[in-house]
Amino acid sequence: MSAAPLDAVVVGSGPNGLAAALQLARAGLSVEVIEGMQSAGGGCRTQELTLPGFHHDVCSTVQSMVSLSPFFVGMDLERFGVRECRPDIAFAHPLDDGRAAFVVGDVKETALGLGSDAAAYTSLFGPLLKVAPTLASNVLAPLRTFPKGPVSMARFGLAGLPSATRFVRRFKNDDTKALMGGVAAHAMMALDAPLTAAFGIFLTVTAHATGWPVVEGGSGRLVDALVAQIEVAGGVVSTGRWIEEFSDLPPARATLFDTSPETLVSVAGNRLPASYRKAVERFKHAPGVCKVDWALSGPVPWTAPECRRAGTVHVGGTFEEVAKSEADVIAGRHTEKPFCLVVQPSIIDSTRAPVGHQTLWAYCHVPNGSTVDMTSRIEDQIERFAPGFKDLVLARATITAQEGETHNPNYVGGDINGGAGNLRQTLFRPAIRWNPYRTGATGLYLCSASTPPGGGVHGMCGVGAAKAVLQDLKRSG
After folding, report:
1. Together in a domain, 190 and 291
2. Residue 1's pLDDT is what?
3. CA-to-CA distance for 50 and 427, rounded, in angstroms?
4. Within a domain: residue 399?
5. In which order are the strands placed within the sheet that holds 340-343?
6. What is the DSSP letter of 328?
7. Main-chain dihedrals φ then ψ at residue 431, nearest 5 degrees
């Protein structure tokens, strides 16, 4: 006799797929997660990429949203071996004169370092920090609902809807503008595009609220904790099983894809409505990233002392330089002086490398699908603000944007955000549907970062899809 169909199968084990599986398993459903790689986690994994004893996160290191995401809030992660380490400084932005602008937990302390911009900075971020959990709940809401705290959301919306280029005009100092430009560049769009200010503002609020922590021992431990909770709830996580055709899947009442929309279409084919397949063809991906991991013989010798205490360092110079770098990428060019996002977990987590040594990674944005190795340009930018950095390199591992997709099919063309964050795709991704997790095909759902609220380790795409599954299964009996 064949086994009874499962209630739900989840294809892919990134944080969103695991979140969906956990929600469904806790609701009493029989659930299996199927992952192609030999370990769960997607971009949230930890490996020895350079030398033995040096533990690198393959993509996600800074868990800026875990402490604020409604999915993780109240979850006893420490019981499952997760310990968060918070740097003294969440992020810093060095300048050529040896100074750096930086963000710490306290808004007033941060503002004191911004000179004449202190009042403007405090008036914006002070009130938003007070409502950070509510703001995060609204921004990360998986479905379109009336926002909680409409006054605070209006404040956030008025400041965030414009471009970063327009937003920084409220500040006088070049260091404040550079600081805000660097964090807004996480949007992976030209900084004169609408909504880029919102990316910068929201991420800065999370920095004040959570300190941008890293997980001791690597982000893979966060995934291990989610897998353990799924198993406690009765679910199963299987690895090393690639799903290439729909016939590779076990029978299930609901099948959720924590994959790119393209992979969903490739596997499900004509089971999906033609309108949905056409929408996926029109879906726009963000630029890719070229990422470098280093094993270092010591800490990065940043000229600005604040950068030595920051978990994340945004390297790119002035606001104008950052804006030019991002504009070049959107125009399809590989800029000579790229904006680089640099993460140094070893300053607060000694388990990442042998005693006296450190791990470091950085990436820069490149045109989607790029095969260009940007290592030398990234290292030149770091050396610019940390003379002697190159002398510390013991080993490096580089992955181009195109190679990123080879290692993780969800990263189409190296796009780690699951799709461009433009206005349309912020509201509707990957297709224009009221419920973005339903595909229009009975029993088929998408729960990856290509659905709202988009990229990041928050699990809320999975939560939204799980809610849709539970509603549909209840209706169907």
Report:
1. yes
2. 35
3. 39
4. yes
5. 100-103, 89-94, 310-315, 340-343, 358-366, 288-296, 393-399
6. H
7. -130, 160
The distance of Cα 386 from the centroid of its chain, to the nearest Å, equals: 26
Same domain (yes/no): 328, 303: yes
Q: Provide the H-helix boundaries in 75-219.
A: 107-112, 118-130, 132-139, 150-160, 164-167, 174-184, 196-210
Counting Cα atoms < 13 Å in the Cβ hemisphere of 173 gives 19
Token pair of 225, please? Answer: 């904790």
Cβ count within 10 A of residue 120: 16
Residue 385 lies in a domain: yes
Residues 271-291: tens digit of each pLDDT? 999 999 999 999 999 999 999
- For the beta carbon of residue 83, count every other beta carbon within 10 angstroms: 14
User: Which three-class secondary structure state does DSSP give residue 331?
Assistant: coil
In angstroms, the CA 221 to CA 200 distance is 28
**Beta-carbon count within 10 A of 343 CB:** 23
Tokens standing for residue 331: 């125009």
Asked if residue 176 is part of any domain, the answer here is yes
Q: Are residues 303 and 401 in the same domain?
A: yes
| The two structure tokens encoding residue 4 | 């009874």
Residues 144 and 15 grouped into a single domain? no
Is the Cα dihedral 138, 144, 145, 150 positive or negative?
Answer: positive
- Residue 103: strand pairing partners: 91
Structure tokens at 22: 């956990």
Query: 375, 407, 439 — which closes off a domain?
Result: 407
pLDDT of residue 426: 83
- Residue 406 pLDDT level (bands cut at 50, 70, 90): confident
Contacts of 423 (CB under 8 A, 6+ apart): 194, 195
Specify the amino acid at residue 50.
T
Give 214-267 pLDDT, tens digit per residue.
Answer: 999 999 999 999 999 999 999 999 999 999 999 999 999 999 999 999 999 999
Same domain flag for 138 and 175 = yes
Distance of CA 160 to the CA centre of its chain: 19
- Single-letter residue type at 235: G
For 169, the domain range is: 84-214+287-407
Distances in whole angstroms, Cα of residue 264 to Cα of each of 82, 218, 386, 439? 32, 29, 44, 10
CATH number of the domain bearing residue 264: 3.50.50.60
Structurally, the chain folds into a number of domains equal to 2
- Three-class SS of residue 313? strand
